[in-house]
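thread: overnight batch results

M.L. [08:02]
morning all. the overnight job finished for the chain we discussed friday. pasting input first so we're all looking at the same thing
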Amino acid sequence: MRDALLKLVACAHQAAAQCDKRLVDREHSAAMADLRATLDTINQGIVLVDATGTVQLCNARAAEFFRLPDGLIGQSLDLRRLTAELLEADFTVSGSGRTATLYRPGGDVFDLHIEPRADGGTTILVEDVTANFRREESLHLAESEYLSLFENAVCGIYRDKPDGTPLRANRALVAFNGYESEQQYRTAVKQSGGNWYVDPDRTKLFQHLLTTTGEVRDLVSEVYRHRTREKRWITENAWYVRNKAGVPIYIEGTIQDATERVEGLAAVEQQANTDQLTGAASRFHFLNTLNAITRDANGACVLFIVDLDKFKDVNDALGHGAGDAVLSTVAQRLRKLAGPAATVARLGGDEFAIITPGASASMQADMKCADIVRAMREPIEIEGHNAIVGASVGVAIFPAHAATTEELLNNADIALYHVKTNGRNNACIFDHAMKLRLQQHKALEADLRSAIPADALELYYQPIVAAKTGSVLGYEALMRWNHPRRGFLPPDQFIGIAEDAGLMTELGNWAIRRACQQAVALPGHISIAVNVSPSQFRSSGIVEQVKRALGDTGLNASRLVLEVTENVLMTSQSIATRVMDDLTALGVKLALDDFGTGYSSLSYLQRYAFSKVKIDRSFVAGIESKPANTAIIRAIIRLAADLGMDVVAEGIESEHQAALLRAEGCELLQGYLFGRPRPFVDICADLALHNLQTCMPQRPLGTLQDAPEERTVHKTL
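M.L. [08:03]
and the structure it wrote out:
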């Protein structure tokens, strides 16, 4: 621009000089006026002076810049002095000689050019370059900022040729790969061929994404550090830089170390998929695994649900630490049995599951069930005790038994329920008939819920007699249910349902009230024994229930005997002690039922104020053939005598058994030999008929024909 202006000015000056002085007329004046008008429209200032210092030309922009008055043309001007004064007053000058850059304090910038002419005159050009200066300054600042970001970024940044040849790499990327300089890094990448992925196929994936989409976004990969070959995880982004024709000329990208994030996510996933106590799979992982199988068109598996039978007893008796140790041991045993292809999971509490995949797994289901049950019966040594928990196992097979995960789980639970209602410590494979039985069970549960408030249950009583005289000294109350459609039901047909449905506390409280109501009608020397269930004992209101029943009926507390088993006592020691002490304070007598079947019975005799011990029927049944049973019975009787406790032997069915027990000094006897459980009206009639004398041995009236004698698990009420 400056050169063009100088040429324009030179031409004008030459044209003016060549004009004949005599021809200065209106045409010449008009031409000069047009030239000045044209020069006044441009943004550059122009001043022409001849060798004598006379102003020949000065456009408006120059007059404004140099602060010159109008009418200068034809007058003399000391332009050098004027320029020096102006510059000294208003500008900071950069440069010297004929070209300088002037900086005004307000931020404006000007270029000043002083050009001598051949005729001795001078041309001065001044141009406002503020906009250009600021644009260049912004570009320079942006470039500086970019370079700063590039070099100081915490993530790696690079630029490569399309063939992968490295062109630029910032400090973070250089350091990530173990080098000290960019040159070292570029050389190393060229020598290694650029393949740094641990999985070689990752290179193909990167190139495929870049060529098909033009970019790579958040690609997580495992790589080798170039120098150390240490494995690290990265997240990378990359894109093509193209020219105006759309041809890629560079590959640019960022790389960020994602090792901590990936390892952290792996740890979180590990926690989500693993039960922290036992090391087995979590319920979350179990469901994901099962869902993957059931949603696969070719999926097949066997599902085992393993529920520990006596875990709560161990947990309550020995503490939560012992319970945790039991769970860990169970998980180890199940993993060993299941094999590497199976998934062993802890579903929660004391419930485990095994998924054995494959269509052939169903052929081994029976054998696997037997192995699991047998392994769970093996003692677990905990703090000097040999705990035997046992397990119930329910099994369902996919797709033979179910079409969905939910149905498979439900059917395995049905099989497990079948095991629990038939004595536990066993295994069962689902069959479709079980659903019908479960429906019947649910219907019976609904009927039982209605029967309690409707007072549709009844207590039957079995006599407890004096060994020497046969006189009735007490009765054990046992519950019966006169079902409107199924007739009289013994406890083994509904107590398990009540336990599952959470009705035992309500049933137990009813039994205590009814026993007290009926006992007051019996002779004063006869006691009534009522069994207490574990759930009833652990409830907060049992003491108040007993107190209210005694108060409402007027029964002497000493005539009420509450029979408890070790299962009842296997709860918090502080709770058990408080409840037992409170009951004893009421005057109620306490009996330890099924004595000798648990591993801690002796400690219970020492800890709690029992007035009576009942020898378990399993010892009585073998007294005629097993000398060891006789020795155990003899020891129990002597121990009870030393502790001031009465002893009752139950389950006596023959006179020979009774004679052996009398010979050992057992004073109280109970069993079918002396009478089966009978309704209250029958025992009242029997007592009146025999005038409170012997009732052994005879067939009592009004009994349930061929009803099996109640076993411990169902004798609760």
